[in-house]
């Protein structure tokens, strides 16, 4: 299913008024809501991703699973990331963030990297929160570094699930930084390697 990135974010009720200025090329939804979440180019199918598409990784207490949504959603619901370094409370979106009210958690590999490139395995989970100031979680975003060294979009695995329960983005970013996540995350402060918020 083809959608523009803006409509993806709107459907996810995480779009802010500043949302996509300069940052969003149209991109392909990777999952039409069937729950499988195969990456771009792979059809969404609850049976799993076909040959040639990335296999499910199961993750662990420090690492989100990748590529198959029922596995990812179950891991998020299990709350392992809540034991990471987490912002104490939700907050309004910062800067040009299109994510709406949110709360960010960093795993040890990310939170303990004082400077320079983040190591493989560095991850953030962002809880997307209701707009009314409450604590209810309406969606999730994940960023997980998968390739060592200075980043391009292809160094990061991205996942976004909106308030309608649909997975909007599920897969590796693009080396050209022209996917809907890397296009903006590439603008994180110099030396911050595609990460805007490091939770102390
Ligand atoms: C237009 C800019 C923009 C786009 C597009 C964008 N983000 Fe973000 N993102 C931000 C900003 C700014 C923050 C930190 C502040 C905040 O969210 O309030 C952030 C934070 C995050 C975080 C927490 C780690 C960090 O870098 O601070 C994750 C995870 C994340 N975004 C995932 C995604 C995913 C997945 C996508 C694509 C579906 C995406 N983002 C698209 C701007 C963007």
Main features:
200 residues, alpha+beta, six-stranded antiparallel β-sheet, two-stranded antiparallel ribbon, 4 helices, binds heme C
**Percent of residues in beta strands:** 15-25%
Cofactors and ligands present? heme C
- What general outline do the C-alpha atoms trace? globular
Low-confidence segments: 1-37, 43-48
The largest beta-sheet arranges its strands as 3-4-5-6-7-8
Given the structure, what is the number of helices?
4
Radius of gyration computed on alpha carbons = 15 Å
Tell me the distance between the termini. 39 Å
| Helix and strand sequence | EHEHEEHEEEEH
The average pLDDT score comes to 78
Number of domains: 1
Residue share in helix: 10-25%
Report on this model:
There is one protein chain. With 200 residues, the chain is α+β, with helices and mostly antiparallel strands. It has one domain. It has helices spanning 5-11, 69-78, 108-111, 182-185, and strands at residues 2-3, 27-28, 85-86, 102-106, 123-129, 137-145, 156-161, 167-172. The strands form two sheets. It has a six-stranded antiparallel β-sheet. The longest helix is centred in the middle third of the chain and has 10 residues, at 69-78. 42% of the residues are buried. The model is unreliable at 1-37 and 43-48 (pLDDT under 50). Residues 20, 23-24, 93-99, 102, 104, 124, 126, 141-143, 158-160, 169, 180-181, 184-185, 195-197 line the site of heme C (HEC).
In short:
Helix content is 12%, strand content 20%. With 200 residues, the protein is α+β, with helices and mostly antiparallel strands.
Q: How is the topology of this model organized?
A:
Layout (H helix, E strand, L loop, with lengths): L1 E2 L1 H7 L15 E2 L40 H10 L6 E2 L15 E5 L1 H4 L11 E7 L7 E9 L10 E6 L5 E6 L9 H4 L15
Antiparallel strand pairs: 1-2, 3-4, 4-5, 5-6, 6-7, 7-8
The structure holds heme C (HEC).
